Write the structure tokens for this entry.
Amino acid sequence: MEDREALSTAYRDIVAAVRDIGAEEEWLPTGCAGWSVRDLIFHLRGDAQRALVALASPAGTAPDTDAVSYWTHWRPDTEGAALNRRMTRISASVYSGLRPILDSYVETTEAVVYAAVQTDPGFAVRTQGHVMRAGDLVRTLVVEAAIHHLDLVVALDRPLPSAGPLRLVRETLDGLLGEPLPLSWDDVAYARAGTGRTPLSAADRTALGPLAGRFPLFG
């Protein structure tokens, strides 16, 4: 699956997973500590808005990161990350329900996919203080959408992400690990363990050997 097609699939998967959930399900917990389903959709809308800006932000300089190394710059336990979690919870709570947030997410992600298709994958763009090629940006967006889709369905009886986006997650995690995973985890298990959502068991650590110290590969 081509990366831009995978992006469209990842976005559609998220919408399909939450489109008709009940009002009480909006407040169920997710795989992101402290965030409900509604909070996480609000965050995802913000990420789509960031992507749209990035695709229209020519860098004029050489890339300083790519679709794999991009994730090494993210530190989840900083003061800024904590503030973002709090502001997301407050902002999402202002809405009367999930529907207006989801409608805006749909509109924005459709614009992101269109912009991605129109942009040369080699075009250097700016995002979050870094410069990367548009094609690498698209891949990071697929990975974030797929990981957060898994977060969304932790307490919901809803479909998992499609195989194409999950494949890109595996490729990214392998890139961070430095080699293909030497375990027989499926894509979902690898995604959850590789991002720290699922802790490694003693057996996992034994099987991984020195590689266990690399986990989580990103959070």
